[in-house]
Amino acid sequence: MRRPGALVAAAAAVVFAVATQASLPVAVSVLVAVPLVLVLPGYALLEALRSAPLDGGQRLVLVPALSVALDIAVALVVNFIHSGLTARSWAIGIAAVAVAAAVVALLRGADDGLRPERSGIRLRWVDLAAFALTGAVLIGAVVVARTPVSAKRAQGYTILSVVRGPKSTVKVDVQSGELETKRYRLLVAGNHVVYRNTTFRLAPGARLAKSVTIADPHNAIRATLYLVGSKRPYRHVFLR
After folding, report:
1. 85 and 126 share a domain?
2. Are residues 139 and 195 in the same domain?
3. CA dihedral 184, 190, 192, 193 (to 10 degrees)
4. Are both 8 and 123 inside the same structural domain?
5. Number of domains within the chain
6. 121 and 165 share a domain?
7. In a domain, 152, yes or no
């Protein structure tokens, strides 16, 4: 038996890693992030490391434990690369580890005919309650982290960043931490030339990333973000 589960886990990790970079509703983001962080990398690594079949109870413990260990290791490694530790680099790193583990599992091949005894999964109700509570806390933490909390006098925020991309391009990133959906107008200009003038809408926690082609990669670039209906700049970035 060629352990196809490792290949499925690796493929799912790649798909989920790509999905985490899309502007998705908070609930969908949670459904995508939880398997990517707690299940898929640990499952692929377990398939690569094990020399004998495991029963369901052992997998239930080892898969999330290995996943968390890999998450920490990947975060430490990507922190030292050029782009640093970001949601994108971390997701790509986790997917890459899952793919590498799947390749190792496939190269190792069969299970040598060994099969676990059909003893089944023996879990007490206390164990089930602990797993349910842990999952609820994790999902709640992700939702709270991604969505600004309504409160008296609470203020939202919007992040605008501009970095140079390959060749004659710049990458503009807008991320909303507002308390409600906002409409924006983005103006990207340089050397008396307007390269991008666009209007868009972002929900709380959503993100917009655009690649803008410019005439000269050495030109200074100004990116200005307005709230639709206001002539006053809301955010402004100058890139030399």
Report:
1. yes
2. no
3. -70
4. yes
5. 2
6. no
7. no
Closest CA to 142 of 3, 40, 224, 38: 38
The domain in which residue 217 lies consists of 158-239
pLDDT tens digits, residue range 166-220?
A: 888 999 999 999 989 999 999 999 888 899 999 999 999 899 999 999 888 788 8
pTM above 0.70? no
**Token couple for 149:** 């909390």
Reported as a single tens digit per residue, the pLDDT across 128-172 is 665 666 666 666 655 655 555 555 566 789 999 999 988 889 999
Q: Of 146, 149, 139, 175, nearest to 31 (Cα)?
A: 139
| Claim to verify: residue 56 and residue 128 sit in the same structural domain | yes
Q: Of 95, 126, 146, which residue is a domain's last? A: 146
43-95 pLDDT per residue, tens: 888 888 876 667 777 778 788 888 888 888 888 888 887 667 788 888 889 99
Flag whether 225 is in a domain. Answer: yes
**Beta strands in the chain, from DSSP E residues, in sequence order:** 158-164, 169-176, 182-190, 193-202, 207-213, 221-227, 233-239
> How far is it, in rounded angstroms, from Cα 9 to Cα 107?
16
From residue 28, alpha-carbon distances to 22, 101, 142 in Å are: 10, 27, 11
Beta-carbon neighbour count of residue 40 at 10 Å? 30
Residues 24 and 47 in one domain: yes
Q: How many CB atoms lie within 10 A of CB 36?
A: 24
The per-residue DSSP string of 202-225 comes to E-TT-EEEEEEE-S-TTS-EEEEE
Q: Is 27 helix (H, G, I), strand (E, B) or coil?
A: helix
